[in-house]
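User: quick one, fold this
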Amino acid sequence: MAQDVDLSSKEWRDLVFEGKNKEFGAYVLRAQSDKRHNKAMLITVIGVIVILILSFAYGKYNDYRMEQKEKELQLLAEQQAMAALAEEQEQPEEEEVQQRVEEQKPEVLPEEVLNTMKATEIAIADDNEVVEEIKSQDEIKESQTAIGSTNFDKGTDDINVVREYKDEVIVEEKKPEPEQVFVSVEQMPKFPGGDAELMKYIQEHLRYPTMAAENNIQGKVVVQFVVTKNGSVGEVKVIRSRDQDLDKEAVRVVKSLPNFIPGRMNGQPVNVWYTLPINFKLQGV
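Assistant:
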C-alpha cells in the first residue's frame, strides 16, 4: 500500500501538514518540488542534446578538414606531375637543337679536272689576204660564256684521276619522343567493378610489413601511377610517404593490380596519372 503513495501529491502534503502552519517554509518547498524536478529534467535533456549536436558538428568538421587536406595533396601531386611532364617535353627539343648545331656538313672533295693542251697553229699570210671576221653581239656573248666555263689552269694531267661526283645526302636520325602522360582527361581510368572492387583487391592482397607491425607503425601512403593506354600499370611513385616498409608494400600492391579500363581523350585511349591513397591500420589498435 505504501508503494502507491505519491509523496509529491497535494493530498500527501495536506495529510503531513494537517493541523500545522502551512505558511511554514517546508510546506512551500514541498509544494514547489514538482516544478523544480521538471525544470531540472528539462535542463538535463537540453544539455544532453546540445552535447550530442556539438559532438556531431565536430565530427563533421574533422571529416571536412581531412577531405580538404586530401584534395590539397592531390592538387600538389597533379602540379608535380604537370611540371615533370613539361620538363620531359622540353628535353627532346633541346637535344634536337643541339644535334642540329653539331651536324657536320658533308666533306666536299676538290674536283680534279683533266688538263688539256690547246695547240695553236700560226700561218703567215699577206695583209691583203687577211680577212677580219666580224662577230655579232650574241656570238661574242656565247664565246665569252664558253671561255668562262672552262678552266685550263687547274687540274691533273692523269686521265684516270678524273672522277664524277654525286651529292651526298645525310639522313638525320630522330629519337622517338616520349609518349605524353595526361593528368586529367575527359574519361578517367576506371578499375573493373569500380572503386569498391579496387579497395577490396588492395585489402585482400596487402601484406602488413613485419617490422612496421612490431613497431606499431600505421598511417596512409599516397601512391601515384600511370595507367597506360592499354590499361596496364606503368610508372609507380610515392608522393606521400609514411614509412619505408609501408611505401615498398604499397608500391608492390599497385604493381600487381590487374588492367584498368584506360582513360580516353577525344575518344582515343591515352596514358593517365592515377592517384591512390592506401591506409595501413593494425587490427585491434
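User: anything notable?
Assistant: Helices lie at 10-16, 25-31, 33-101, 137-148, 195-205, 210-214, 244-255.
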